[in-house]
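Quick start: load a record and inspect it. Here is Pentatricopeptide repeat-containing protein, chloroplastic:
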Amino acid sequence: ISERGLGVSAFTFASLLSGVASIGSIRKGEQIHSQVVKLGLSCNQPVCNALISMYSKCGSIDTASRVFNLMEDRNVISWTSMITGFAKHGLAKGVLETFNQMTEDGVKPNEVTYVAILSACSHVGLVSEGWRHFKSMYKDHKIKPRMEHYACMVDLLCRSGLLTDAFDFINSMPFQADVLVWRTFLGACRVHINTELGEMAARKILELDPNEPAAYIQLSNIYASAGKWEESAEMREKMKERNLVKEGGCSWIEVGDKVHKFYVGDTSHPNAHRIYNELERLIREIKRCGYVPNTDLVLHQLEEENGEAEKERLLYQHSEKIAVAFGLISTGKSRPVRVFKNLRVCGDCHNAMKYITTVSGREIVLRDLNRFHHFKDG
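Running the structure step on this input writes:
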């Protein structure tokens, strides 16, 4: 735009940064940031707010924090963007300290601020702290909790293993829980293999949306984890009858000016041979360091003969492992490997990343559906 002699406003840059953040392209974000500085807009409040959000969503929370700290004029969006960034990166201390500083400066939080605070409490298991902030919303700021805030509290209780408390909390809500709340609860039932509550949650979801694939998938996984293979297969069959399809796992990474996508077991990349050689090498090395594949997470009934080996092979083909292997052979050793995924990272991949960052000496930043996961030196 600027090359054609057209005026570029702060609003234009804020919009561009928002678009860059949506695809996780930190290189393009850095290029736009340099243009912002050249044009003397680095102190513009809306632009700075957009920069904080962009760097946070692209996995560079330290840069987001630097932009925030250099701001002289902050509004509620500035504070909330920084708090949300810390929350997405699992940095509860940063969330709570920034929130305290915000209130000390006399800035009134809004609904979005509290979503970030409750989310941060959830990810690190601060149950008492979460309850305190939830109750203070209306008491101190006259903000009525919305569905998102109730969903955060359900997630907080579920992550702490308090499924019965979470179930009672859902039933005490002042309005009917939506699909998101019940999906959160159902996911916890899968983690804790609670078939009774899982069945109840799935029924609630299907009452609200009979074509919600997550209800069938999660309940099928709960049955499989409990060894109820017939019930698990029945749920999968019901999905087929309704022509429902599970969303496939996809991970992507930016190298140079190109975004590379990978799917489960993907061999379509031009460098697939090199990628899988690197992945096999990594698996050998991390096994020597103590990594043990969690084959319990492979919820398929396989033949006894070679069953464990086949389960390990399926785990190694997860899209995030492939993307990380590609990142290690395609990026400079001084830069973190930043991978994005459309679904939640599985427990085995999370554990494997701890070992991979140790044997490779590289920092790995993995963003999944919920948050960022940082891996450095194990």
